[in-house]
């Protein structure tokens, strides 16, 4: 598509769902890239509006409220505040962060629906849906669980199986159950209003497939796969009691579908902001209905169809709205080689990170951008987090800045020295970094944030190489004037770093400006060699980043391991019962109680423990058991009354004759524990 010059840009980021916190997957997929882009546009002096807000309607919120015995409003109030506070502390620089339970939004979304209804843009259909006769209500997707027809996971939801990832409808489930009453639901007729996507298919094909071939391959490809099929009408209302009431006759007990209501939140939040600060933002219509405005949606790949097909059709049907010019959706970020899952608590939550890693907002921003899942799913590991901090932020960026500032403090009391004549080594370094502005801008304009940040870090690499090659700490002794030139160039590079990293690492850029004693730089100055005048007094140098030690990382790994064990325990199911045996066969086993007199590890064996047991016969019995891995201190078993099989034939194990078998129970984590009695039963007592 031919590039158009726009007067302003409206940037939206997917509304996080207010039934939990924000995790690193959300940050990497949506909020960090959106914030980088907006900060860059502001630095370029472009007119831009950054819209955020909480999505506060829908079934998962009612499910949580029911589970906790509170109201849905209580749920969204709690999480809206948590999410908003976390974003503010993390530096996500929204111009407004509002919510879909606001009065402005309720009125605006209802009016949008009513306009489409009055103009005949919606169709009315009666369909059969699952109904809970005990609870006397229709069941939304998440209120139905059952067996997945594809992978046979017994805990699949009515909209998706979290085990195999397939999208489902409630009627596909095998043996469906209501999560409200536990009863088996029945099919019952109900009326809802539908958006006829099929009527817009030809327009969508032209607009996306022909006019927006520059979109990311994952976005374009997913849209094409939908448009290659015949689009079907999609319900825009639901039988629920939590949400925006459908504003038409005969619609009692129905609310707007959350995916109709939520994207309208971008517009209603804009309206709310413009009405509060009209002198700054003007009227809301110019941000959404003016052809000179560029609209960009930042989302994750699971929201592509809603932002590229359904919401555009809603806007097209309305008749006044501009279409998104780009939708740079990211793929998914995994955590320690496993899919991030809120239901399994397998995530790094932003509000917890901000407590565990105080002052390290930029470290996470840097790592998530360096690992951004821009073209394919990527993986976050705490080891990589540590390595990138220690080997890049500390050893490259921070190291160069610290050397430049500390040497200036040492030799000139923190005053910028004058720059003398350039040598070839100086010209080479300057030549390398003078085009950094063009490189960063080219990548940011194409939404290649990972590459743009790499170019910013390359400035620090150039600086480190230059200062190491020039060795000003040695030159100072023989040629102070030459040392002045070297450090002047180093300081100019340092100032450039403060500008280059401003969109990516705003906290450390602010800290670096304070160390340079400069309140602000202009983006247009990036690449200049005269940012700091000779004679300028610098501030006090300090470490820009600090090394993260192994024990800090281990705490995070331990937290994840505890989560994994908790999930295993919650999902534990006993192994299937073995084939039936007759009582006569069971009686052949002679199971007895033995008192452990001694227990020790068998030399040269990692598996075996040697038990000396009083079996009540008057002669001690020796039994070897392969459970050493589960008893680091086997002495703790001495004095225990354990169960053993007495009538097994003796076996030779590591040169020891073992006279029986110790009975052990296998736990959910596959660890073993010897079976003991609850009372002091006499040794030799039979079990049966």
TrEMBL record:
Q: Where is this motif: 'KMSKS' region?
A: 339-343
Q: Which SUPFAM superfamilies match?
A: Anticodon-binding domain of a subclass of class I aminoacyl-tRNA synthetases, Methionyl-tRNA synthetase (MetRS), Zn-domain, Nucleic acid-binding proteins, Nucleotidylyl transferase
MF terms from GO for this chain are: ATP binding; metal ion binding; methionine-tRNA ligase activity; tRNA binding
Tell me the keywords, alphabetical order: Aminoacyl-tRNA synthetase, ATP-binding, Cytoplasm, Ligase, Metal-binding, Nucleotide-binding, Protein biosynthesis, RNA-binding, tRNA-binding, Zinc
Q: According to the UniProt entry, what is the EC number of this protein?
A: 6.1.1.10
Asked if Ligase is a keyword of the record, the answer is: yes
State the compartments where it is located.
Cytoplasm
Where along the sequence does the record place the motif called 'HIGH' region?
16-26
Instruction: Name the positions where Zn(2+) binds.
Output: 148, 151, 161, 164
- Enzyme class comes to ligase
Any idea where the TRNA-binding domain is? 585-688
Q: Name one GO cellular component term.
A: cytosol
Q: Which GO terms describe its biological process?
A: methionyl-tRNA aminoacylation
Report the catalytic activity.
tRNA(Met) + L-methionine + ATP = L-methionyl-tRNA(Met) + AMP + diphosphate
Classification via CDD domains: Anticodon_Ia_Met, MetRS_core, tRNA_bind_EcMetRS_like
- In which residues is ATP bound? 342
How does the cofactor bind to this protein, according to its record? Binds 1 zinc ion per subunit.
The cofactor named in the record is: Zn(2+)
Stored PANTHER family: METHIONINE--TRNA LIGASE, METHIONINE--TRNA LIGASE, CYTOPLASMIC
UniProt subunit comment = Homodimer.
Protein family membership: Belongs to the class-I aminoacyl-tRNA synthetase family. MetG type 1 subfamily.
Functional description taken from the UniProt entry: Is required not only for elongation of protein synthesis but also for the initiation of all mRNA translation through initiator tRNA(fMet) aminoacylation.
Q: What is this protein called?
A: Methionine--tRNA ligase
**What is the species of this protein?**
Xylanibacter ruminicola
Give the gene symbol: metG
């Amino acid at each position: 598509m031919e590039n158009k010059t726009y007067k302003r840009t409206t940037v939206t980021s997917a509304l996080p769902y207010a039934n939990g916190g924000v995790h690193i997957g959300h940050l990497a997929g949506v909020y960090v890239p959106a914030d980088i882009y907006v900060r860059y546009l502001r630095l370029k002096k472009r007119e831009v509006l950054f819209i955020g807000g909480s999505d506060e309607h829908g079934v998962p919120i009612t499910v949580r409220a029911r589970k906790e015995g509170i109201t849905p409003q209580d749920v969204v109030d709690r999480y809206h505040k948590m999410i908003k506070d976390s974003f503010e502390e993390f530096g996500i620089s929204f111009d407004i962060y509002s919510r879909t339970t606001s009065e402005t939004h309720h009125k605006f979304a209802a009016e949008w629906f009513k306009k489409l209804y009055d103009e005949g843009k919606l169709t009315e259909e009666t369909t059969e849906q699952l109904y809970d006769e005990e609870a006397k209500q229709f069941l939304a997707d998440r209120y139905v669980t059952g067996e997945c027809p594809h992978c046979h996971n017994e805990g699949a939801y009515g909209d998706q199986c979290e085990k195999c990832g397939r999208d489902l409808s409630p009627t596909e489930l095998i043996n469906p159950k209501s999560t409200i009453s536990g009863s088996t639901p029945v099919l019952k007729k109900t009326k809802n209003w539908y958006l006829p996507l099929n009527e817009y298919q030809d327009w969508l094909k032209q607009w996306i497939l022909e006019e927006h071939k520059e979109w990311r391959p994952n976005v374009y490809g997913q849209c094409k796969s939908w448009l290659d099929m015949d689009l079907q009408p999609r319900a825009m209302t639901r039988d629920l009691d939590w949400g925006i009431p459908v504003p038409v006759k005969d619609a009692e007990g129905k609310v707007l579908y959350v995916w109709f209501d939520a994207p309208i939140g971008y517009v209603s939040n804009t309206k709310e902001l413009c009405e509060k600060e009209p002198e700054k933002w003007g009227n809301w219509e110019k941000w959404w209905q003016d052809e000179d405005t560029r609209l960009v949606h930042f989302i994750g790949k699971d929201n592509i169809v809603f932002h590229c097909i359904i919401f555009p059709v809603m806007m097209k049907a309305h008749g006044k709205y501009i279409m998104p010019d780009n939708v740079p959706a990211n793929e998914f970020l995994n955590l320690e080689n496993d899919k991030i899952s809120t239901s399994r608590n397998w995530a790094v939550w932003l509000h917890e990170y901000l407590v565990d890693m105080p002052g390290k907002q930029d470290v996470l921003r840097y790592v998530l951008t360096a690992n951004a899942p821009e073209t394919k799913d990527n993986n976050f590991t705490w080891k990589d987090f540590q390595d990138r901090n220690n080997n890049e932020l500390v050893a490259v960026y921070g190291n160069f800045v610290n050397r430049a500032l500390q040497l200036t403090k040492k030799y000139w009391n923190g005053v910028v020295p004058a720059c003398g004549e350039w040598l070839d080594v100086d010209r080479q370094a300057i030549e390398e970094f003078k085009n950094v502005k063009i490189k960063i801008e080219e990548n940011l304009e194409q939404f290649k944030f990972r590459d743009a940040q790499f170019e910013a870090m390359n400035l620090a690499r150039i600086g480190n190489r230059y200062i190491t090659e020039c060795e000003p700490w040695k030159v100072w002794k023989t040629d102070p004037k030459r040392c002045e030139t070297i450090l002047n160039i180093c300081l100019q590079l340092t100032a450039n770093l403060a500008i280059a990293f401003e969109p990516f690492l705003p906290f450390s850029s602010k800290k670096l400006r304070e160390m340079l004693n400069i309140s602000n730089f202009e983006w247009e100055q990036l690449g200049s060699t005269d940012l700091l005048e000779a004679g300028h007094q610098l501030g006090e140098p300090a470490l820009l980043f600090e090394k993260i030690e192994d024990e800090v990382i281990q705490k995070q790994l331990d937290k994840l391991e505890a989560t994994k064990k908790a999930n295993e325990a919650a999902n534990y199911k006993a192994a299937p019962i073995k084939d039936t045996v007759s009582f006569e066969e069971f009686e052949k086993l002679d199971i007895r109680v033995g008192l452990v007199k001694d227990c020790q590890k068998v030399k040269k064996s990692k598996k075996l423990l040697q038990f000396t047991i009083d079996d009540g016969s008057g002669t001690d019995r020796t039994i070897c058991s392969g459970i050493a891995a589960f008893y680091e201190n086997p002495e703790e078993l001495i004095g225990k009354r354990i169960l053993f099989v007495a009538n097994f034939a003796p076996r030779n194990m590591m040169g020891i004759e073992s006279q029986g078998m110790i009975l052990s129970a296998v736990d959910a984590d596959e660890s073993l524990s010897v079976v003991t009695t609850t009372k002091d039963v006499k040794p030799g007592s039979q079990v049966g």
